[in-house]
Amino acid sequence: MNHQTAAVALVNRLRFKHLALLVALDDARNVHQAADAINVAQPSASRMLSDIEEAFGFRLFERNARGMQPTSLGVVTLAYARRALTDLTRFAEDLDVKRRGGHGQLTVGAIMGAAPDLLAQAVAALKTERPLLNVRILGETSDQVVQLLHRREVDLALGRLTTPLQHNDFGFEPLARETLVLVVRARHPLARRANVALAELMDWPWVAQPIASPARELFEGELARAGLATPVNLTECASIFATLQLLENFDAVAMLPESVVRDHVRGGLLVTLPLEIGKSLPGFGILTRNDEPLAEPAEHFVGLLRRFSQPFPPPLTQPLSPGGGARVPRRASPLAAC
């Protein structure tokens, strides 16, 4: 059988239900759970997987005591299945919007630090110009939005590259910096302190982003430079909304984007501590998949993001002192510069 005949045979045998099963198996690594996810009986799912592997001519999964692990060729096949299924779903949604008189859709991944300012301005302008365009916003942290972009669940993203090799897969255009501040609730015993050292905060509860996020990596770097260990009393939370709720309900400390906490500070719910932190966090920007042109709505949205982005401010050069205090004048606190 030549290559062309093999390709035709594969196309004739594969169905989108097969792709759905592969994606479900990739997520669950369990036939029973995958069968439930696509609403078929387990015996049917097992037969479907056998048919798929027969069509490809190789095993996609190794079965062992830990469940199902994809083979090396299975990893490639699963990535294709996820892309194809996502593209079909997005095409069907877009077609339905247009059938009902809409103008298509745009799906954007975004870190929460960009949402209150840059993203909100760009989306508001886009919806003013194109009210029938369906806009979806997903994600909260850079590691989440990069994953969404990789899985083709968003057209583009606002965030940061999170590993050194991701530039091979994604393009990055820097847009703005994200000012980070340390915040506590207004009733926190530290809320009225004129001076606070980083070392003093280690005995308090903390709410921090997961270790894979750029902000958390920066936080751990700040602690290392100050000779401090990670706080023992720490809650990891990827959701900015949940973090804000936690801060308002007990005496915890968190490092968050100034744009996210601004309204909470103005409303008297949260207080920023007089300690500079996070100045070395790389700026965020537009993330796109390499070698894949953007659709017209996405290209237009990129233009709006560029219009509303602010130039990068000059980097601050004064580091945290060994004792944890910031070697900057009081007037140079993070909020004073905003």
Task: Kindly describe this structure.
With 338 residues, the chain is of the alpha/beta class. The chain folds into 3 domains: 3-85, Arc Repressor Mutant, subunit A; 88-177 and 282-308, Periplasmic binding protein-like II (D-Maltodextrin-Binding Protein, domain 2), CATH 3.40.190.10; 180-280 and 320-332, D-Maltodextrin-Binding Protein, domain 2, CATH 3.40.190.290. The protein is built from 11 helices and 12 strands. The protein has helices at residues 3-13, 16-28, 31-37, 42-56, 72-99, 115-129, 142-150, 214-225, 240-249, 258-266, 296-308, and strands at 61-64, 67-70, 105-110, 134-138, 156-159, 170-176, 180-185, 206-208, 234-236, 253-257, 270-272, 284-289. Strand 1 (61-64) and strand 2 (67-70) form a beta hairpin. Helix 2 (16-28) packs across helix 5, helix 3 (31-37) crosses helix 4 and helix 6 packs across helix 11 (296-308). The longest helix is centred in the first third of the chain and has 28 residues, at 72-99. The chain is globular and about 70 Å long. The N and C termini lie far apart (67 Å). Mean pLDDT is 83; it is low at 312-338. This is DNA-binding transcriptional regulator, LysR family. Residues 14-71 form the HTH lysR-type domain. Belongs to the LysR transcriptional regulatory family. One of its GO terms (molecular function) is DNA binding.
